[in-house]
């Protein structure tokens, strides 16, 4: 089996566009790797890497980066300078936050940050306007920034198993949304603005939430159609108010 050093040397000499160093028991990324500026795909998954160098931005042609299953507590700030980056998978790490300027990743289409330690998303997330799929399950999020509504291309939003107590009304601005997964959160109500999205004809899952009884009843009796009819009605405003009152009493 070739050594990591020889794999990197060969990739550099052949001007390779893809490099797979998954499951190599790496604790760090060899500096020589950042010399392979021809790379468009880099896989470093399932190692023990705790840090990525700011030199990552030297990979100017990089389109796909997979670093899932490592020990990363942060992403390098310079990642925002890789304007070609389209697919970033950093799930199953220990990320507590994202670097300042992360919203400047100008071409990002798919972002997977599931199974980390994220507690919030900063407003600059709203600058990721090319994003189509966002996976944030199994973190510690309590809500989303209002700027999420700027992601007009977003069609898939996965938020399962967080601590989300409410969603911003701006979620109704996601006019491309076809899949929304909210299972395992702390939602008592859903924003009525959701009815303005095309989610009714897509995939919408929200079980394992402490939803107010009328919301559960409407869905059980008539599915999404009856639920959305309820959410569009004046009665729904009273349900939302009741949920807020219940929360204050606690």
Can you give keywords for this protein?
single chain; alpha/beta
What do these coordinates show?
This protein starts with a helix and ends with a helix. The chain has helices at 4-13, 213-231, 234-249; strands at 18-20, 41-43, 64-66, 87-89, 110-112, 133-135, 156-158, 179-181, 203-205. The chain has 250 residues and is α/β, with parallel strands linked by helices. It contains 3 helices and 9 strands. A 9-stranded parallel β-sheet has the order 1-2-3-4-5-6-7-8-9. The mean pLDDT is 95.
Secondary-structure topology with pairs:
Elements: H1 4-13, E1 18-20, E2 41-43, E3 64-66, E4 87-89, E5 110-112, E6 133-135, E7 156-158, E8 179-181, E9 203-205, H2 213-231, H3 234-249
Parallel strand pairs: 1-2, 2-3, 3-4, 4-5, 5-6, 6-7, 7-8, 8-9
Strand arrangement, major sheet = 1-2-3-4-5-6-7-8-9
Pairing-aware structural class of the strands and helices? alpha/beta
Q: Give the integer mean of the pLDDT values.
A: 95
Estimate the strand proportion. Answer: 5-15%
* Number of distinct beta strands: 9
**Count of DSSP helices?**
3
Radius of gyration: 21 Å
Shape label? elongated
């Amino acid at each position: 089996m070739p050594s990591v050093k020889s794999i990197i040397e060969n990739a550099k000499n052949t001007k390779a566009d893809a490099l797979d160093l998954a499951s190599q028991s790496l604790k760090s990324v060899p500096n020589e790797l950042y010399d392979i500026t021809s790379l468009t795909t880099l896989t470093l998954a399932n190692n023990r890497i705790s840090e990525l160098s700011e030199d990552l931005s030297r990979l100017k042609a990089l389109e796909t980066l997979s670093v899932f299953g490592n020990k990363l507590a942060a992403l390098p700030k310079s990642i925002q300078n890789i304007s070609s980056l389209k697919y970033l998978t950093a799930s199953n790490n220990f990320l507590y936050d994202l670097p300042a300027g992360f919203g400047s990743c100008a071409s990002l289409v798919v972002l997977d940050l599931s199974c980390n330690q994220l507690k919030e998303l900063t407003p600059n997330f709203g600058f990721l306007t090319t994003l189509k799929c966002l996976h944030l399950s199994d973190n510690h999020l309590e809500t989303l920034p209002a700027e999420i509504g700027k992601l007009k291309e977003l069609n898939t939003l996965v938020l399962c198993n967080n601590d989300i107590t409410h969603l911003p009304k701006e979620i109704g601005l996601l006019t491309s949304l076809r899949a929304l997964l909210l299972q395992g959160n702390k939602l008592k109500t859903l924003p009525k603005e959701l009815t303005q999205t095309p989610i009714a004809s897509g995939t919408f899952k929200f079980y394992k939430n402490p939803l107010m009884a009328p919301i559960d009843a409407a869905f059980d009796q008539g599915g999404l159609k009856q639920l959305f009819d309820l959410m569009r009605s004046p009665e729904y405003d009273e349900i939302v108010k009741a949920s807020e009152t219940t929360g204050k009493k606690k």
